[in-house]
Fold this protein.
Amino acid sequence: MRTRRVVYLFITLAAVLPGEHLLAQVVKAKPVQALETVDRDYKLEASMLGYFAQDGARNPTLKANKGDRVRITITDTELMTHDIALEKMGIKSKTVQEKGASTSLTFTADKSDTYYCTVPGHRAAGMIGTFEVVEGALTTAPVAGDVPVTNGKPLNLNVESGTLADWTATGGAFTNPIIDQDPSPVHEKDMHIGFAGTHFLSSGGTTNYQLTGTLTSVPFPVTQPFAAFWVSGGALQDTRVELVQARTNKVIFQSTGQGRATLQPVVVELQPYLNQEIFIRLVDNETGISQIPYIANDKWAHINFDDFLFYPTRPVFDNELKQKDIIVLPPLDPVLNAGLSGTKAAQAMTLPAGFKITLAAAEPDIIKPICFTLDPRGRLWVVESHTYPVPAPEGKGRDRILIFEDTNGDGTLDKKKVFAEGLNLVSGIEVGMGGVWLGAAPYLLFIPADFTTDKPTGPPQKLLDGWGTDDTHEVLNSFRWGPDGWLYGTHGVFTHSNVGKPGAPDSERTKLNAGVWRFHPTTRQFELFAEGTSNPWGLDFNDYGHAFVTACVIPHMYNMIQGGRYFRQAGKHFNPYTYDDIRTHADHVHWVGERGPHAGNFRSASAGGGHAHAGAMIYLGGNSWPKEYRNEIFMNNINGARLNRDHPARSGSGYVVHHRPDFLAMNDSWSQWLTMKYDPSGSVYAIDWYDKNQCHSPNPDVHDKTMGRIFKITHDNDKWVSVDLTKASDKELVNYQLHANEWYVRQARTILQERGPNKKVHKALKDILANNPDPTRKLRALWALHVTKGLTEKELADLLTSESDYVRSWVIQLLAENKAVSAETMKRFTALAQQDTSALVRLYLTSAMLRVDPAQRWDVLDALTQKPQDKTDHNLPLLVWYASEPLATIDMKRALAMAQKSTMPKQLPYTIQRIAAIGTDEAKKLLKELNERVGKQEHTPETHGLQALLAKVLSD
């Protein structure tokens, strides 16, 4: 406990038993059994918010005397990957991934350094602090403070009298607020409060956190320019300490806790209020009671307070609670409804003017819809997920596929039939190309179908196996036909797959966990399109054929580029020489604060609702909806029960995605839309899992097995149509490539792909490609020609001179699709790399290089690495590195020369690391020669950084 009116400063962070004086932390640590004897033993908690000492200090300055043997132990406080490293010494601990896991770093204190987390993005997020080598004692002199007085009488602001004299309480939170024990009887026993004197104040601790109220002191004069008080408890908007100007009742300062038990000092400058009266008000208006059935109550909905003192000069505390380090969460979002009938759920929703929503189907007609698609007749093919979350034994699956139809346009799906039953853990569906395509881990299945009778014409075929089931809400999902005729899908990070044809050896399989994959329906090729993100459960393409996915937990929006490697929620990239990955393309997140995405759950309505997203629909449904919605990305925010809307804007080689006002609020905490798609009329269908439990659990009993809904969103301008594109002529299908509603475009293209090559079709499509001025129509013609095998390599290559960079870029992708590019085409690629003014074209060239033999890449990459206009591009510097990385294994001297000429910011450092990883005598000799040359150059921050890197890799 702290002594009244004397605040001891401390540095070292060795564990202290409850009740010990904090000054005890400065003594040299005793040896720990089975561990090396150390002089300074620091224990820190690791989270994305930073490293925290036991006294609450965030990223504390760690001190030691020169020559001390030092150990820093970190304990993971979340399900995230963390480590700790010293920058100058170039050493790091092992990584930890599980909550509660620990790892340590032991070294001899030689010079001051920086400690940080090496996991990409974590240092930038705030996991960084200072280690200092100092002379002499590690403590500072005590600082004295004065208790406020009024009329010459010291006030009972620190409740050392054991009573509430000089205080007035309202509400139940402060009925019995005075605590004289540590551990406290109203806190968990392992919590150390560290209060001063014999008493402190609490509004309920972790035991009575539900209580609310206020505690207000008598007014007193400000007699010195600084004050400090000690606070802990919740970092919640409604649990706080306020200093109030008595004359105006104006709050002049306030502070919450930061979600920890140990009291920390808060310093307040009061110079402007000298000789004026103020009073202290402790506020607890937060109950912490969760309104979500499966979310635990927030026990940090309380405030602890102690030791208000005046100071003549600003006091210095090593564990000062600084306002910039507190991420205050707003109050819980109100839950307006829960557990509504389908009809009432539709009535409760809020939409923009001009829109309405109708209940198209509900239980018992539809139960647990997990995915759906639309066929060429505008009918819905919906999977009922009765097996999730636990896969059934082979042959014992209970999932089924239902076909729904609105026969009269009233918005109700009045016709229903069963297509297939007895399926197991189905998570993705698409129709076309002769049948139904299903993701049903561990398989990618194909069910051949007669779409005139809506009956299977054979049993399910196992096209691919090896799909993991580690985490059954991260299995293959979000099926979409891509513009290039491939079937695309997504996959989550905590499920580990090794995909190949049944019976294939590992050498013929593809490992994946997070990212976008694709499968060709006729060649039966499978490949990873782009890797990374977290648990993407939403994929769509915009007007230009660019893929976007929505993700959970990490920032939510990514423009998925072929060959790209993206920020991961967990785990490592399969290529160990990736070094860094492409971050989100969004300039925002949908949760509040920086305490991590989960902390914002059910408090983030102001930002979009929270981190959990499902579904991705880029609206291209025609002209009946206002133009502002075209090419906007819609996704359901599960925790926020609302439909988020984001706007992708072209920027450099790709996009920056901005937040737009949320499109729709469900106003129902049980609402769980999983995906949305537009239909022939431009209206949008959405499936709703509808369940009070919003989180995945391997326990099947936490999910309601009786509910499910399908909703339909329409605009006043929407006109219902009855169509059947399977009956359309080839000419009509070609003309549909010009339709304003992309539904017709995609359905018609898939039918043309299934019908195969046709000279008349090719002629008509080439006319659109050559003469239509709209780049999107040119692209549609190009894609349809590609899927129907209507272009030769020469015809494609000739399109590299198109005025549209969208067309040029897509021609590059199609030329490289088979991973074999002719020498003549490579010459044209080189010319484009040297001369093309479009960053988008350069992006596609880089992607293409990732698909061809590394020996063919030199000339193109040599040009791409020397584009100064791309050095700050969001995508190109890293994608160029991914493509050039293997060149070091072919000719490391040439690769190093190319890197030295490069304008890409990390090309040379990464190339140095890659050559060092080769580890041969030749590699070391090359790097030593480089080190000598760099040493002779003018000293700049860049050359200093290169020398430090070279010294490190040469010493390893």
In short: Residues 3-34 have pLDDT under 50 and may be disordered. The two ends are 47 Å apart (CA to CA). The CA atoms of residues 248 and 762 lie 80 Å apart. The first helix runs from residue 122 to 125.
